[in-house]
Request: fold
Amino acid sequence: MKHVTIKDVAKKLNVSISSVSRALNNKPDIKKETRELILKTAEDMGYTPNPIAKHLSERKSYIIGAVVPELMSEYFSQVVIALQDFLSSNGYQLIVMHSDENPELELKNVKTLIRNMVDGLIIAPVVGNMNKSFYLEKQKQDFPIVFMSRVSSSYPASKVIFNNTKWSFFATEHLIRQNYKKIYHLSGYKGMSVTKERVYGFEKALKKHKIPKERYKIIETGLNAEEGMEAIEDLIFNHDLPDAFFCVNDMVALGAIKKLKENGYKVPEDVAFIGFTETLMAELVTPQLSSVKQPTYKMAETAGKLLLEIINDNTTEVKTVVLNGELNIRNSSINPKSNIL
Amino acid sequence: MKHVTIKDVAKKLNVSISSVSRALNNKPDIKKETRELILKTAEDMGYTPNPIAKHLSERKSYIIGAVVPELMSEYFSQVVIALQDFLSSNGYQLIVMHSDENPELELKNVKTLIRNMVDGLIIAPVVGNMNKSFYLEKQKQDFPIVFMSRVSSSYPASKVIFNNTKWSFFATEHLIRQNYKKIYHLSGYKGMSVTKERVYGFEKALKKHKIPKERYKIIETGLNAEEGMEAIEDLIFNHDLPDAFFCVNDMVALGAIKKLKENGYKVPEDVAFIGFTETLMAELVTPQLSSVKQPTYKMAETAGKLLLEIINDNTTEVKTVVLNGELNIRNSSINPKSNIL
DNA sequence: TTGTAGGCGTTATCAC
DNA sequence: GTGATAACGCCTACAA
Reply:
């Protein structure tokens, strides 16, 4: 029942505590035989180190704090779970808090985490990254922070982000190549860096293929299915439906598709769709939803690695990792009228 | 930068460390004025307690371990996130591991967690609860364990479970009342307690309404969409389709629906569906999927509460909490041919 | 009511 | 090579 400590091992062998500690930590200044004897008896006695004591002694909590905007979506919940996984297999623990897209709550959470002596922070900031100045201050004080996902490539801090522009370009170009003539983009919140980047990729593809202004539109939405539905309602009301949509995420796409179906439209015959940040749902709906898959595990693992590097190697070097995804074409964006095979 | 400690506060006020400790912990044996003075200066100096030192001194890690069978599904990822949330707002942390439905891995994880000195465990065991004897042993040693979700109501330990029988009964009865004549159940793995309970509720409803054996069937499946699809393939091949399915979960239902649609069947006109353990998807697919909603936050919160009670009050009383859900009827199980309004 | 001293389990800095 | 000993920050008898 009671945990055996190095003291117990020391007593049993009539050696000092320090020798046991040395043996256990593979320190050089100890005789081979004593080390092996100590290791063996420690093993036999069922000794396991007490992490808390270690942490106190090392003045490290081995706890990482993470703040994400929300935890309802498949994306962030998977990222967080992956982060847990990565950190715990590296001897760290994770405390997650979510800011509910609210900058004040985000700041409060970050402060709580710092108060709880986390060794570092991983942050996916809310729309607009409102707490920038606080973070810059902390970074200046050499507090380890890594940003994730919701931050632009120019942001002056270590970060891991997704190449939104590139993949939004590909997604849009795919629609163009499918011969869709009028393409609308349901964009998410204007203030979000990811929105800006995806809009940029969208426009870049249109420009490349010389699509005139009358043939595309960017419509600001939220990030949930309801907001996809609302956008469609408006467009139907205004008799302004395109023949293809590129959506900021799968939820918005699915909401939009649902509303169109309810109104008697067919997907992709009447209106085609491509989503983003692929969810499990993409393959289960009819028609299957084309989407851009983002690597959740990779995102978490990279952010974790960057942070642990900062913590352990005491680097101040700012590193930016840009992740790639994959474009998964499914039936929702295949033009039956197109000649392309 | 450097954290201020009780020592610093004590030095500043020329009082002893113990007085500061007493004041901070609202102990009785201290003069009001000194307490207030101490509290005020501590506040002013920006003192925050070092949890690690506290934990070491109290011989408690304030860490809870959780082992769940998987983390890919919406259900368990939400439960785990809710657990995190509940525990951290009660001063505890959570380490989650998943067993991938593998009993050996489950045991290994549990042992790892115990070695890391968690104060207690929350376990959703794999199919068949293969590590029962190990857990019973631990419980006998007064190690705090609470079970969750994957365990039968007779299991001799504190637990929080869902009333599968009851809600499977309701789901089935709903199909019967919709005048569906032939009803099949895609059941999940036979060995799972939840499967058994849901099968029991299914049969109970059939019995109550005197449905003869020829008009129902129980088909063992897995828990994923693929397995729902496979089941349907077999049934189509054997020309053995019922007019309604009750499925062990939404994923199986969605897979099955997809396969049926691909083969030209209409839902619910040709075949009706009701799922279980409702997911976000239920409202987004066409037709919307009827399902039984299970409370994820409540499940986590209750399990957390039970465990903290055991840890803090040193109760040995075995408590079982049975949670209820709600039956959400949507279009996938509304019989257009039925006369019921 | 307050202070002293020892302990929680480790690590690390000294001597020897 | 090895063993005392202090320190990490906090709690708690016990003594004053």
Observations:
- Residues 159 and 320 of chain B are 5 Å apart (CA to CA).
